[in-house]
């Protein structure tokens, strides 16, 4: 069932409050292109494609210079380019983003992200800003049945809980994954009832255990930041000083549902190039399209210095605040209604 007028009013009030809060924190609202020449390299994301065809032809009388574009899966690259420009050291955007194939109770192929970035900034400073923004929306939110183990309301009063990935795995899966190779990790997962595929990679096992054993336990009484992800799970994040096995990446959970994903940004173009090239190889191995590297994005990184940023799922935040049980309830035109086959 699509969103009602009452839900649309709740969305308008929420986004207005977020804008006011970000403005008070000194963030400038910006807009970046939706159709971009370079798709993101995340191995498991599929961007929608489109084509730009100049009319009249360029050059005059010549052949149309058709150019493949992608609908962005996130405005991250463009916003980091803005960080390198004078006057944009703190910026935010409500962005419509697109991810092919993502339809479920908590996914829609077109959805809204709120992304904000600060330079100088850090994972800690971004988490603090996000925590304060959410806390001002409401002091509590309805429990989300079907996620997590709690039934009471979730308190949005700060401070939010913080727990490192290693601690979360030890608490709810019974082991620390970092010292394990892929085979030992899969064996430990099977011992707690998770069934990885044959020859699953280390990262595939990590994701499966996270989804089945860790996520449902996060953010039950109050929102929880899951921090210090394994380095292989954070291609755009800075590694933790003193422990390069983990990165300064965090995700925010409430009621067992992920709301936000953020980093202390990697601002080293040389290291970022190597990581993106590794993701290109992963995409190729999965049979996905491999995109050229965004050289303008890489060039900007060395000019930023220290920075932090986060992407917040606006639709999921509205689900939390209203008690909606599916993303379709907070969208006026959900994919499951517009394209009936998406229900299956």
Topology readout:
Layout: H1 5-24, E1 28-29, E2 35-36, E3 49-52, E4 67-71, H2 76-83, E5 90-98, E6 110-118, H3 123-135, E7 140-141, E8 154-155, E9 161-164, H4 165-172, H5 182-191, H6 202-214, E10 224-227, E11 239-240, E12 243-247, E13 249-254, E14 257-264, H7 269-285, H8 295-304, E15 308-313, H9 314-322, H10 335-338
Parallel strand pairs: 1-5, 9-10
Antiparallel strand pairs: 2-4, 3-4, 5-6, 6-15, 7-8, 10-13, 11-12, 13-14, 14-15
Helix pairs in contact: 1-3, 1-9, 2-8, 5-6, 7-8
Features:
33% helix, alpha+beta, single chain, BirA Bifunctional Protein, domain 2, 344 residues
Helix tally? 10
Question: CATH homologous superfamily, by name?
Answer: Bira Bifunctional Protein, Domain 2
At the fold tier of CATH, the topology name is BirA Bifunctional Protein, domain 2
Q: What is the H/E string?
A: HEEEEHEEHEEEHHHEEEEEHHEHH
In the predicted model, the low-confidence regions spanning at least 5 consecutive residues are none
Instruction: Report the helical percentage.
Output: 25-40%
Q: Give the N-to-C terminal Cα separation.
A: 15 Å
| CATH class category | Alpha Beta
Strand content: 15-25%
CA-based shape = globular
Number of domains: 1
> What integer is the average pLDDT?
93
Rounded to an integer, what's the Rg over CA atoms? 20 Å
């Amino acid at each position: 069932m699509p969103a009602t007028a009452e839900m649309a009013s709740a969305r308008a009030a929420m986004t207005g409050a977020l804008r006011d809060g970000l403005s008070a924190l000194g963030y400038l609202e910006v807009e970046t292109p939706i159709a971009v020449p370079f798709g993101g390299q995340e191995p498991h994301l599929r961007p929608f494609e489109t084509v730009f065809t100049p009319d009249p032809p360029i050059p005059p009388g010549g052949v149309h210079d058709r150019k493949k574009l992608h609908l962005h899966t996130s405005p991250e690259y463009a916003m980091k380019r803005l960080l390198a420009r004078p006057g944009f050291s703190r910026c935010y955007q409500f962005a419509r983003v697109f991810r092919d194939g993502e339809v479920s109770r908590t996914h829609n192929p077109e959805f809204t992200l709120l992304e904000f970035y600060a330079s100088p900034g850090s994972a800690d400073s971004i988490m603090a800003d996000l925590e304060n923004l959410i806390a001002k929306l409401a002091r509590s939110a309805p429990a989300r049945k079907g996620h997590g183990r709690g039934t009471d309301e979730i308190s949005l009063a700060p401070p939010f809980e913080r727990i490192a990935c290693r601690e979360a795995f030890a608490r709810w899966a019974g082991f620390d994954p970092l010292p394990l190779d892929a085979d030992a990790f899969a064996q430990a997962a099977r011992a707690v009832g998770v069934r990885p595929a044959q020859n699953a990679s280390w990262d595939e096992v990590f994701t499966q255990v996270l989804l089945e054993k860790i996520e449902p336990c996060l953010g039950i009484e109050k929102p929880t930041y899951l921090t210090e992800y394994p380095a292989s799970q954070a291609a755009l994040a800075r590694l933790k000083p003193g422990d390069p096995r983990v990165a300064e990446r965090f995700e925010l959970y409430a009621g067992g549902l992920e709301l936000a994903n953020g980093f202390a940004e990697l601002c080293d173009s040389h290291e970022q190039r190597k990581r993106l090239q590794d993701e290109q190889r992963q995409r190729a191995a999965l049979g996905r399209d491999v995109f050229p590297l965004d050289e303008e994005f890489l060039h900007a990184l060395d000019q930023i210095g220290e920075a932090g940023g986060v992407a917040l799922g606006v639709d999921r935040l509205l689900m939390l605040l209203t008690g909606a049980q599916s993303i379709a309830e907070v969208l006026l035109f959900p994919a499951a209604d517009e394209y009936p086959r998406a229900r299956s």
